[in-house]
Amino acid sequence: MNPLRRTATRAGVLGATLLMAVGFAVPQASAQAGYLEACTSQVGTRWAPNGWPVPAVTLSRGSRGDCVRALQWALVRTAFVSSGDAPTFIDGDFGPKTEAAVLRFQSAYPAQTGGPDGIVGVKTWGFLLPAAQG
After folding, report:
1. Where does the pLDDT of residue 32 fall: very low under 50, low under 70, confident under 90, or very high at 90 and above?
2. Residue 72: HSE in the Cβ half-sphere, 13 Å Cα cutoff
3. Quick one: average pLDDT of 41-57?
4. Among 114, 107, 113, residue whose Cα is nearest residue 130
């Protein structure tokens, strides 16, 4: 992604976050598309066992960047993180709050995600992203 487009994407994400913070509705699909586009342009795409295209990256505590933002957005979208916490939660840093939300998600769907381990691999991505779209 060229620097101008990356800046525009970040500005759009920041604007959407600020609008959410003051109570305006934000088109969720465009936020997800921006996060996922930035992530997959950096790491590529692979296919989950369910046939869903997912980022070709495994995330765990200490990971940072656009793919973590995509993960955090999906966790907010699936209500494993309160939408009121979204402005401070979606920060691109896979810290203790993100790990706890991942563990909650994996614990709720152990068969689909491979069980709660706090690591976001192909199975967790493959179940989380479709759930976030719906």
Report:
1. low
2. 29
3. 95
4. 113
Residue 31 pLDDT class (50, 70, 90 cuts): low
- What are the residues whose beta carbons fall under 8 Å from the beta carbon of 88, sequence distance 6 or more? none
Burial of 127 by CB count in 10 Å (0-12 exposed, 13-18 middle, 19+ buried)?
Answer: buried
| 25, burial (CB in 10 Å: exposed 0-12, middle 13-18, buried 19+) | exposed
CA nearest to 20, candidates 79, 76, 87, 80:
87
How would you write 69-102 as a 3-class SS string? HHHHHHHHHCCCCCHHHHHHHCCCECCHHHHHHH
Report how far apart the first and last C-alpha atoms of the chain are (Å, whole number). Answer: 27
Q: Kindly state the tokens that stand for 79.
A: 């209500």
d(CA 70, CA 90): 8
Quick check: helix, strand or coil at residue 58? Answer: coil
Q: In terms of Cα–Cα distance, which of 134, 17, 27, 10 is closest to 66?
A: 10
Residue 126 has a pLDDT of 96
